Amino acid sequence: MNPDQLKILLQAVKGGDTPVDEALEQLRHFPSQDVGCAQVDHHRELRQGMPEVIFGEGKTALQIAQIMRAMTDKGSNVLVTRLDSVKAGEICIQFPTAVHYEEARCLTLEQKSVEQNCRGTILVVSAGTSDLPVAAEALITARFLGNRADHIYDVGVAGIHRLLARREQLCAASVLIVVAGMEGALPSVVGGLVDKPVIAVPTSIGYGAAFGGIAALLGMLNSCAAGVTVVNIDNGFGAACAANLINRM
Amino acid sequence: MNPDQLKILLQAVKGGDTPVDEALEQLRHFPSQDVGCAQVDHHRELRQGMPEVIFGEGKTALQIAQIMRAMTDKGSNVLVTRLDSVKAGEICIQFPTAVHYEEARCLTLEQKSVEQNCRGTILVVSAGTSDLPVAAEALITARFLGNRADHIYDVGVAGIHRLLARREQLCAASVLIVVAGMEGALPSVVGGLVDKPVIAVPTSIGYGAAFGGIAALLGMLNSCAAGVTVVNIDNGFGAACAANLINRM
Amino acid sequence: MNPDQLKILLQAVKGGDTPVDEALEQLRHFPSQDVGCAQVDHHRELRQGMPEVIFGEGKTALQIAQIMRAMTDKGSNVLVTRLDSVKAGEICIQFPTAVHYEEARCLTLEQKSVEQNCRGTILVVSAGTSDLPVAAEALITARFLGNRADHIYDVGVAGIHRLLARREQLCAASVLIVVAGMEGALPSVVGGLVDKPVIAVPTSIGYGAAFGGIAALLGMLNSCAAGVTVVNIDNGFGAACAANLINRM
Amino acid sequence: MNPDQLKILLQAVKGGDTPVDEALEQLRHFPSQDVGCAQVDHHRELRQGMPEVIFGEGKTALQIAQIMRAMTDKGSNVLVTRLDSVKAGEICIQFPTAVHYEEARCLTLEQKSVEQNCRGTILVVSAGTSDLPVAAEALITARFLGNRADHIYDVGVAGIHRLLARREQLCAASVLIVVAGMEGALPSVVGGLVDKPVIAVPTSIGYGAAFGGIAALLGMLNSCAAGVTVVNIDNGFGAACAANLINRM
Amino acid sequence: MNPDQLKILLQAVKGGDTPVDEALEQLRHFPSQDVGCAQVDHHRELRQGMPEVIFGEGKTALQIAQIMRAMTDKGSNVLVTRLDSVKAGEICIQFPTAVHYEEARCLTLEQKSVEQNCRGTILVVSAGTSDLPVAAEALITARFLGNRADHIYDVGVAGIHRLLARREQLCAASVLIVVAGMEGALPSVVGGLVDKPVIAVPTSIGYGAAFGGIAALLGMLNSCAAGVTVVNIDNGFGAACAANLINRM
Amino acid sequence: MNPDQLKILLQAVKGGDTPVDEALEQLRHFPSQDVGCAQVDHHRELRQGMPEVIFGEGKTALQIAQIMRAMTDKGSNVLVTRLDSVKAGEICIQFPTAVHYEEARCLTLEQKSVEQNCRGTILVVSAGTSDLPVAAEALITARFLGNRADHIYDVGVAGIHRLLARREQLCAASVLIVVAGMEGALPSVVGGLVDKPVIAVPTSIGYGAAFGGIAALLGMLNSCAAGVTVVNIDNGFGAACAANLINRM
Amino acid sequence: MNPDQLKILLQAVKGGDTPVDEALEQLRHFPSQDVGCAQVDHHRELRQGMPEVIFGEGKTALQIAQIMRAMTDKGSNVLVTRLDSVKAGEICIQFPTAVHYEEARCLTLEQKSVEQNCRGTILVVSAGTSDLPVAAEALITARFLGNRADHIYDVGVAGIHRLLARREQLCAASVLIVVAGMEGALPSVVGGLVDKPVIAVPTSIGYGAAFGGIAALLGMLNSCAAGVTVVNIDNGFGAACAANLINRM
Amino acid sequence: MNPDQLKILLQAVKGGDTPVDEALEQLRHFPSQDVGCAQVDHHRELRQGMPEVIFGEGKTALQIAQIMRAMTDKGSNVLVTRLDSVKAGEICIQFPTAVHYEEARCLTLEQKSVEQNCRGTILVVSAGTSDLPVAAEALITARFLGNRADHIYDVGVAGIHRLLARREQLCAASVLIVVAGMEGALPSVVGGLVDKPVIAVPTSIGYGAAFGGIAALLGMLNSCAAGVTVVNIDNGFGAACAANLINRM
């Protein structure tokens, strides 16, 4: 139930078109619905500006399917993140219209078309080929939440001319998500070129003293470009959520 | 030199009102002016949407004054952060119109009035009395950059009713900066209550296993509220810069 | 041998009903019995208020079975924790009355019924679906040790209304075990709502900068709610042991 | 306002003895009172079973005095922790009946006598001479909250006979707070001797690889004695709060 | 020194032209033998008091066999540590008289009988069943190097009476190797009971905040029992080498 | 396109032998060529003194093959690092002239013979048998980039005579790459013996408190031999690149 | 056992009524003396082979003096470690025969002459000038405990010839204490040259990534020389205690 | 070799009885001079290509002066690093011709003029004003060792145009030392622009999660620009030593 639907319902109650009992039934699962392993939060969109998203890691395929069923019964679109291929396969059998993005480890099920009501374009910029899965998670999430989203890839700082050649596209975005592993320097350089919010995503790519993304994370937290904010390692999803909140009208 | 001034200059050149040599002189310090210890970047506002700010830590009072002189000569307003009281005293003697905020460890010098051209209000929310200095740095920076900015303080998560009592004010902000030390849980709770971007600032307050802000930083990076982004420990300034970029029209 | 049995035995010796030699035989394995790979401590209940529990990790199925045999020979109930499915299967063949809890990775064998002699209810509260295995370990242990134990699940702090809706149940418990991964903020909020001891259990759930539970652990150690104590990462068993000692009459 | 006072007030309202307006005035500062730098939570005792305590670190003497004034105006007793001698001196001038415990870095101001309504004795056990300040903080807090509290000191594990000689006293306590630095092994040994809850407090005492208490903290979290729970490094106050909640009737 | 030179030297010794002491001096730093992947150091025994031992991890079965062949050709006994079962199987086919100790992950090949010329007994003391493999590595190494070596197991500090019951055996040893995981407190207690050198071996056993042995390692480095020294995590071999040097006459 | 080829092209343009359009076509992929998953940087040699090298980890065999095809189409030699055997097998089927070095996890494809135009010899020195793969990566890279390169192996500091016996060869090198795991002390000793640049490579070999190479990395960063520089853990490739830049004329 | 009981026992020994062996047994675990802030353990020498030593850090001058008085009253020699100059000054006024070693931060008070009854010489070897204070603490402790002790200094591994020039002296020692900061490589080289026990002491000397001795500590724990054991950072005292236990007859 | 022997050797050289090459060989590993607190290594220049340099931290002014005297007596030039102003003042009184560089914390004493016999220019590039002291240490060391050395400062990556404007100067250097704190990204960008060796120096400048230079250090170790090597945090001296070895002819 999104804000518009709620407004219509309440006006119908006020106008007498909908009896209180019926409205109550519709609001029955407020604040949440117990599906045995989880409390599904149908009103998160109302409260937080985006629907609940299922974090697939640490849940069984069965648990994910239960939550999905509860959401699709309410007419919601569904996004599952951190989903490995085996679980995705089991779920796709039960939900034939679901789409599985293997590289991004995401699955979407769109029952109603995604409405685009945002200000501008979210631009995802990634540093190396190995950062593509995280960038893809950000892209798919941003689009699922109703944003226009583009991607520039393989523009690491050791070949700075590749990035400078895209300066125009960088400046045209309304929010930028910058994905990088290793030393995580790309957000600093991008943040110095644009006058828009930059969300930095460290990735766990790298070896040795990259320590699974710690080097990139620290680099981004210490960015000399003021205005860069950071999300968790490999958290393309979180970056897209933040970008969505910024980009909404 | 801000974008409007540049546009006027270029049109004057085009129209013949300003000779090329004179325009050249005005643009002479592009890209930066060498003041002996630093390259002052007069065009950062043009490029990044906010003027250069002087990071006071690790610079002598003399170095800071040199950079301030170069900026005031160009008519810029000046913000110095991380400035201890001794250095601030020396600088205030040379720049009598400068204002020193002791708790926030900031100094401002405003030659021209700050123009307010932003969408909404930046709300700074802080968890404990000890987080006040960092919150103050964020507030002063946000206002210096031309934003309306308010403050809710001492609303830690262990007394959740104090926070819930302010829900209306939380929901009315256009961007929220949430400052917390210790376990750093406040941004998660706030992020679950609003549908606006939340920027989390961990503080170094705490003892023992707080490890100078690491506990709060990790807590915020792992926030279960999607859409929370994080800046460096005690970096109220950085949070305000990011909030400013989001809040600008 | 529990305290009551010991008292009866000693009175029987005093009264002459039990010859010294026979009492000696019964006490023969005091302080412990060597089963080749371990010293089984039959008198831990006497000394520490709960029977010895077998930590299954790092022991072979054969070693576990040897220790179980020594315990069942003395009439004790048995609890094995951290037991993977393969080892559990081998053990269940040898001990057909044993019960294996797969999600909780526990196995129990109850020869005598568990006596409930505790003051109140231990309430296990968990934050996300992924925290269920640790919560389950705590629940099973608490019940094995003779406590009433209930469970509230999926009430993370980013949807604070879900937790507040259960306030009555929270306040009715005599001890609370709060299980959370990611930023580990739930114990702080719960600790601020109740006037009973709260034992916090960080879980290794999360990714990136969760660092296998370190973020949650630090968050809990730095809880702004006074009176929260913490056990090791994923240590639902330890939390239940502490809760049992508090809850006993 | 404690629970009894609230009950009397509400009955007076019900019976008509107290007009609603007057009751409202008395409850006016519910949930909290804004004293400029803090929201004083007068009803914490009602909600959490112990009055608000002022954490002195990171607050100025002036801020502490403001909060103390708001509390004493309501008739509350006051405890300030982490208070250095300079600030304590300034405060004692303003509050002549306050008592300053230098070793424990605490200050108390008792307007009404502390009521003892707890089950048994809280026993503080400390390992070395250097752990005395943290043990003292725990002792003073425990007594301030209305508990009987005793102390055994300098009984480190390298001279195990010193500890064993006190076994009777250990077993007679209803809750034990065990304070240790260096390797932090004392709680494991104590936990193996008693059948009561043990709260472990790591201290920052030690050098080199003690890392300011990390070694002791990790040792305690990994205690092989089931039922030991842990609080933050040097957090004698927190341990006493938890012990108080366990010890209350 | 090549084989021919060695031959001439030895003949000179045989013929009485070169005194034994002088020949010994000449051979003391005789270089090593290149076997393609390693420089086998045949004179380590002469120089360091024990023969070269093959560290099996990170070497292929083929590489290990090459080094073993070079050693057996010189008549040396061979010890291989950190050897998994697959590689051990391949090696045992080539060296039928080799003995594989699966729990200890060691393999020995003794061509000449081990000579016992040490002062006393090395006593290996281990805390839990899970520490057995590391204790076994220490035992086998100590015996391979010509020491008498005994073992006390499952005497963790949470059941201190089990350890105290063995006090006589502890005091009779000439060197003690104390193996423990989790909080690693056992060496402190043992070190307080005996007047002999104690070598502490942290093991990687434990979970959560044990961090693969870091908790035990830090505990041991910070032992309050003076005279405890520490080796690397799981390094039973290293502890036995040190104990051997101490125990030799 | 290497510097010589570019010079010839530009002279041809200047002299009118090559029309601008044709030159443009040849330079078309400047700065980089988009192959779908990567921006291949054909001019890195021009800019950085060595051709682009493909980092195999985190890329699929298909992605690697795409990049290789784009490079071979331009006539470049190809080096792939961090390539596991499965992917190497797939690639070798498509590029039959490619050579796979299993121990070094590298693959080379040389279309034109490697030109040797360097000053002296790069000497790779490694401490233990287990360091061989990293040393091999350095050797193959150094030779691929046109250097003479030799190898001394198994000369750890605990048998210092083995290293001293090779002093002449050490002093004859123009650059030294010193590879070591465990305590990483070899570069300090080597750095004290020679008057040439020493590049230290920590390896992840070791166990327990080696922490995957951190011990060796820290040891090398803190080397008491002035003039030692360090690369990332296991980064034989990076060490060879640096050595190549030093060794070039 | 109180003084009267002790007197009776000793008279019984004197009179021949109690054999010495029996008296020894009775006194072996004689408890300790409470001096208000500590339990002085007069029988540690009997039990652990060396007298109790006062760790000065974290104790006030007054507390140290109390413990010293209790010990001198029993006729014991006294060693205080980690004593800063201010406290040492206060103590020397009260105990005029005490000797203060400023560099070593130690103080000794010898009432009876130290008896030398050890096997050989303890040799302290240190790497740099900055390691001298830790080496001095080891030297003074070793001599206080009745050992012959010598010192070789400034023989770091980057100038290996300085160390090799002392090989004879190294080989003549019965135990070696090797003190080093920075990369901590010296124990590995020394351990490879001698056939005696080597105790490694990391020091906190160094900067940057030395991390207060962590680099040296890890280097020593990972020493490739088998038989090296390690004590805590800067713990020259602990190393000397261990060396004393090894060196005793 | 004692002074007399040295005299005889030199007279033999003078008289032609000993060829220079033979004398050189004899003197190559001449041991060191004992000055009480250090072994001064007069032949380091011969062996390692640069004279011994005195590390001032952790040494007293007296110790430094002793070592300086021993060096000046031999006619050497002297460089002292990490020297605070107090000690520098004391030393300058004794050595009036010494020069103290306060910002760089260095002192030089040049008895003979520094000979410039290097290939090209060492270019020091630093990111922020706060990095100047470390850059200055590198500059002074490089010049002391006989190199031409220049400096570009305040060219951080967030204003990439400032760096690109200096591209010509960057490409003209023979070795580059790149000094940066915070995220440490500058070496990656510089390394991508030049074809010369780049030595990266992380500085401890920054706050919060900069962790005293760890963020910059990790960033540099993980540089995506191949050929970058790294020295310890704040180690401008070490970087200059390495650059000198590279730059020598």
TrEMBL record, chains A, B, C, D, E, F, G, H:
Gene3D superfamilies: 3.40.50.1970
Limits of the PurE domain: 120-249
InterPro entries (UniProt xref): P2CMN_synthase_LarB (IPR039476), PurE_dom (IPR000031)
One Pfam family of this chain: AIRC
Matches recorded under SMART domains: AIRC
Keywords from the UniProt entry: Membrane, Transmembrane, Transmembrane helix
Entry's transmembrane regions: 170-193, 199-221
Protein's name in the database: Nickel pincer cofactor biosynthesis protein LarB
Top-level taxonomy: Bacteria, Pseudomonadati, Thermodesulfobacteriota, Desulfuromonadia, Geobacterales
